[in-house]
Specification:
Low-confidence stretches of chain A: none
Strand order of the largest sheet of chain A: 2-1-3-4
Structural class of chain B: alpha/beta
Helix content of chain B: 25-40%
Number of helices of chain A: 14
Structural class of chain A: mainly alpha
Number of strands of chain B: 10
Largest sheet of chain B: 6 strands, mixed
Strand content of chain A: 5-15%
Strand content of chain B: 25-35%
Strand order of the largest sheet of chain B: 6-7-8-3-9-10
Number of strands of chain A: 4
Largest sheet of chain A: 4 strands, mixed
Distance between the termini of chain A: 27 Å
Shape of chain B: globular
Mean pLDDT of chain B: 88
Radius of gyration of chain B: 18 Å
Oligomer: heterodimer
Distance between the termini of chain B: 44 Å
Helix content of chain A: 55-70%
Order of helices and strands of chain A: HHEHEHEHEHHHHHHHHH
Radius of gyration of chain A: 28 Å
Chain lengths: ~375, ~250
């Protein structure tokens, strides 16, 4: 056992000698949370809206008022025609155009019908659809209220929408689980594999294998410091998300942490696998970067929803460990579901860990060939 | 057991040791003995099978057939026991570069199961012998190659192993530093540590008590440098080597 502690101490020394790396590892979650939480936002905010209406009318006035009373929209102070509006949109002075049809008030009164055209900037599709969804909801609501009493209760359908778990449509609800998956993956898989491969590269692994220390101890003691770093990062991310991004932990914090530990374990075994198939640090870094980070970012549902992907790709996402972790975190943290709802995710992660571990033990050469 | 008997004891005994990698025979039925305290040189061109043979003796590779006994343990059945009783140093290895000198001693002392107190005493003693007392807290990376080599050797024998295996220990070191390194080897041998060294510097072969020359996985010659030179009627080990290569 003493061998083990001697070795763990050595690993901590390696890390402590490399101040730059440790700073990067500790600051990375903070930077990512800030970036994803604030910069990469899909939220509807300060939308510059232009109303185009040929004559003053009651219904339109009500709708305009309702839209502007929502905190997300701000009016553009120009009286513009439909042609001017387009150039305003081009120069980004306007993000939403509400264009009422000719004689809107009249047709509304006579036929109970009218046309409103909503125009948004499709070059930013996420933003545009969010704006359209939000503004059309307000309009629908206003029209329902305006409908003549005589029409009410005559089978008219009123649509009401509600966003469960994330009423304000905050994108941080989506990014926080993603960032958790990404960071834990980078630290555990990438750093562990690099630190093992480094010993191969410098030749010290040879010395260790000739020494009486057990190969298992070498591997285990390599993962200890990175495990601790991951726990620190997990705490940083959770604190930042709760207190800065205001994403609450709705479900059980205990199980959220437990599931994270399972994911950390999966990542460690993955790092082990990478280290057993590579011989240089550069290769280990490239494999972790390309084979782990890219899928973790693009295919895990962190940025792009999995259900929108082609079927073949959807199958592929099942093999990305981060997919399962992010799903589990969303359920436990955001939706506040009980542990029983994430059994599949936990089982999938455990199965992956078992496979990675078996593969890497098979690959790991106890005796230098 | 009298002193004389213990000096004549074989610390390494190898009989018809063979290692095959699929159809390729890297080591072809070699047999030899090494006596306790001897400096035993293991020579041969690259690919002659030196490293494979040495790895089997260190318990890193299982032999395909044949027997080997190192420090009283069988290489096929008790490689772990062998590992605790030998020291090892290779050309590539120059300690952990980002650790301090004393931290390297502490690490390897710990790996070989030495007590903390013992490690401290041995470290202080060895650094004094090398004249490196001032470098105790130096990060290894900043030391000259020759110094690292000496330190690496000291670390390899700090747990007082029965045998120390040196795999081309002086590769890439200046001649003067190489001579100093051999002084260390002699002093270890005088303390009763058997030295098993591979090298391709033929001048170094002259320093060994006995040498073995391997070719294509088999032992071509094994004797003292003096007898080998007499046998082939030449003046240096270098020439002995060329004579053998001709065959």
């Amino acid at each position: 056992m003493k061998q083990f502690f001697v070795f763990v101490r050595k690993e901590f020394l390696h890390i402590s000698r490399d101040v730059r790396t440790i700073l990067i590892l500790l600051l990375m979650p903070i930077v990512q949370i800030v970036l994803f939480g604030f910069a990469l936002t899909n939220e509807v905010q300060d939308v510059k809206v232009l109303f185009i209406s040929n004559e003053s009318n009651e219904t339109a006035a009500l709708i305009n008022h309702r839209i502007l009373s929502s905190p997300y929209f701000i009016p553009v102070d120009t009286q513009a025609s439909a042609t001017d509006a387009e150039s305003l949109m081009k120069s980004n002075q306007v993000s939403l155009i509400v264009n009422y049809s000719r004689n809107f008030n009249g047709t509304m009164a006579q036929e109970g019908a009218g046309q409103i055209e909503l125009i948004a900037d499709g070059s930013d599709p996420n933003m545009a659809s969010a704006i359209l969804m939000y503004s059309s909801a307000i309009i629908a609501e206003s029209l329902a209220d305006r409908a003549p009493v005589s029409l009410k209760g005559q089978g008219q359908v009123s649509l009401s929408t509600e966003l469960l778990y994330n009423p304000q449509m905050k994108s941080s609800y989506n990014f926080v689980p993603g960032v958790m998956g990404l960071i834990l993956m980078i630290i555990c898989a990438m750093m562990t594999s690099i630190s093992i491969v480094r010993e191969k590269e410098t030749g010290t692994m040879e010395i260790l294998l000739v020494s009486p220390i057990r190969p298992m101890f070498i591997i285990l003691s390599k993962s200890v410091p990175y495990f601790i770093l991951s726990v620190i990062n997990l705490a940083t991310i959770l604190l930042l998300s709760v207190y800065v991004l205001k994403v609450p932990v709705t479900g059980s914090l205990f199980w959220l942490v437990m599931v994270s530990f399972i994911f950390i374990f999966v990542s460690l075994t993955l790092g082990l696998l990478i280290s057993s198939i590579t011989h240089t640090q550069v290769a280990a870094m490239l494999i972790s970067g390309l084979a782990l980070m890219m899928p973790a970012m693009l295919l895990s549902g962190m940025i792009f929803p999995i259900s929108n992907m082609p079927e073949l790709l959807q199958v592929f996402t099942k093999f990305v460990p981060a997919t399962w972790y992010i799903l589990a975190v969303k359920k436990l943290m955001i939706q506040g579901l009980p542990l029983s709802s994430v059994v599949t995710e936990i089982a999938a992660m455990c199965a992956m860990a078992a496979v990675f571990l078996a593969l890497s033990l098979k690959q790991f050469k106890y005796r230098l060939e | 057991m009298s002193l004389k008997e213990s000096e004549n004891k074989n610390i390494i005994e190898v009989k018809e040791l063979t290692k095959k990698f699929k159809s390729f025979t890297a080591v072809d039925s070699i047999s030899f003995e090494v006596k306790k305290g001897e400096i035993f040189g293991f020579l041969g061109a690259n690919g002659a099978g030196k490293t494979t043979a040495m790895k089997m003796l260190c318990g890193l590779l299982k032999p395909t057939s044949g027997q080997g006994n190192v420090a009283g343990y069988d290489i096929a059945t008790a490689p772990e026991m062998i590992k605790s009783n030998i020291g090892y140093m290779s050309q590539r290895f120059s300690l952990y570069e980002d650790l301090k000198v004393w931290e390297n001693f502490r690490l390897f002392g710990g790996i070989y199961g030495m007590k903390t107190k013992e490690i401290e005493i041995v470290t202080a003693k060895m650094l004094k012998e090398l004249g490196f007392e001032k470098e105790r807290n130096t990060i290894v990376e900043s030391l000259p190659v020759g110094w690292k080599q000496k330190l690496a050797f000291s670390v390899a024998i700090m747990h007082n192993p029965a045998i120390v295996f040196l795999d081309e220990p002086t590769g890439g070191v200046a001649p003067e530093a190489r001579r100093q390194f051999w002084e260390l080897i002699y002093s270890a041998s005088q303390k009763g540590i058997t030295v098993f060294v591979t090298t391709h510097y033929m001048d170094e072969a002259e320093y060994c008590n006995r040498v073995t020359i391997m070719k294509d996985g088999a032992i071509e010659a094994i004797d003292t440098p003096r007898n080998l030179k007499l046998k082939y009627g030449v003046n240096s080990m270098d020439e002995v080597f060329y004579e053998l290569a001709k065959i």
